[in-house]
Write a structure and sequence with these properties.
- By secondary structure, the protein is α/β, with parallel strands linked by helices.
- The chain has 12 helices and 9 strands.
- The strands form 2 sheets. A 5-stranded mixed sheet has the order 3-2-1-4-8.
- Strand 2, helix 2 and strand 3 form a beta-alpha-beta unit.
- The mean pLDDT is about 90.
């Protein structure tokens, strides 16, 4: 059977890294054909100790830790790729848990020629305790929150524009290059864009499944989506044809919301149109919250899910406009929203 290198960017993941390693230990794939390379950005919590404890308890799974001095995700991935010895690469995150057949299914689809990069569906779970963390997990998998990002909810296999994590032959890196270290987010989307530009396909199959732990607080969620929105502008500057409707809506929403509010006294009859649009949006997110609360039988989701969806939209959209502004100031130092 082919050799596989699992590469994992990591920073301060002591709460979940052992869960990931346990899920890799449970893979229905020969352990002697697997290696795990964790590219750690000098974690300041107990991540390294958790990895060492796992390795001591399970020496039959080859795990190596390399220090990512760059402390960014694309730098971590490229460092791990340089260390990888496997014929195939499987990328995972430190806050994920692949299902037992994740690696075997990914390699089967790659060898069948389904795509140059294959991935699957996230099963999103709360990243913390309580109703708010549960609300964020629901919102992160809801079409109203993520649009047509099929890897969060689809049950149909298809060629797509991007997949989460992904699995590919290591030889692909020699052909199209590694991950772009000038992007502090959207590096996976940019990687997949180059795959498609090279004439290959990116393939999503719901047989490939992994648990993904969502952010636990609204502040962490806002930082995550602000980073996505800010760095999306860099992606579009290079690949304008990659813009999808789900990505255009948050910036348009923020612009319309703010512009309408500032111009409201002068809108005249259009005040009614603006007000109806805002009310319709609020009713839509409230309906999503009520439906989620009914399914889970947890009343607080009726409040938490709308708060999470609104946070995602506002953070992504506002950071997108900030990113466009920064694009017009090339001399300014590039920093991601915190």
């Amino acid at each position: 059977m082919p050799t596989v290198s699992v590469i994992v960017p990591c920073y301060n993941e002591e709460k979940t890294i052992a869960k990931l390693l346990g899920a890799l230990l449970a893979q229905k794939y020969p352990r002697e054909q697997m290696e795990v390379i964790i590219s750690d950005g000098d974690s300041q919590d107990g991540t390294r100790a958790a990895i060492a404890a796992f390795c001591a308890a399970h020496p039959d799974l080859a795990v190596r830790v390399v220090t990512n001095c760059g402390r960014t995700i694309p730098a971590a991935l490229n460092l791990a790729l340089a260390e990888a010895r496997g014929e195939f690469i499987v990328r995972l995150d430190a806050h994920s848990m692949p299902h037992p057949h994740y690696i075997a299914t990914s390699l089967r689809l790659l060898e069948a020629g389904k795509g140059a990069n294959v991935g699957g569906v996230w099963e999103i779970l709360p990243g913390g305790e309580g109703w708010l963390a549960q609300s964020i997990a629901v919102a992160a998998a809801h079409p109203l929150g993520v649009g047509d990002a099929k890897y969060r909810y689809t049950d149909q296999a298809a060629a797509v524009d991007t997949v989460p994590f992904g699995a590919f032959r290591k030889s692909l890196i020699a052909e199209i290059g590694g991950f772009d270290e000038t992007l502090l987010a959207n590096e996976d989307y940019e990687f997949n864009a180059r795959i498609r530009q090279a004439g290959y396909s990116v393939y999503l199959d719901p047989e490939i499944r992994a648990v993904y732990f969502a952010r636990a607080t609204l502040a962490a969620l806002a930082r995550q989506y602000a980073r996505y929105g800010f760095w999306k502008t860099r992606m579009l500057a290079r690949y304008p044809g990659t813009l999808r409707w789900r990505q255009a809506l948050p910036p348009l929403f923020v612009a319309g919301l703010l512009g309408g509010a500032l111009a409201f006294p002068w809108l005249g009859p259009l005040q009614i149109v603006y007000s109806l649009a805002v009310v319709s949006y609020l009713l839509a997110v409230l309906a999503a919250g009520l439906l989620a609360a009914g399914r889970a039988r947890l009343l607080l989701l009726a409040l938490g899910v709308p708060l999470a969806i609104i946070t995602m939209h506002l953070a992504w959209g506002a950071a997108f406009w900030w990113g466009l502004f920064r694009l017009r100031r090339p001399a300014a130092k590039e920093t991601s929203p915190k």
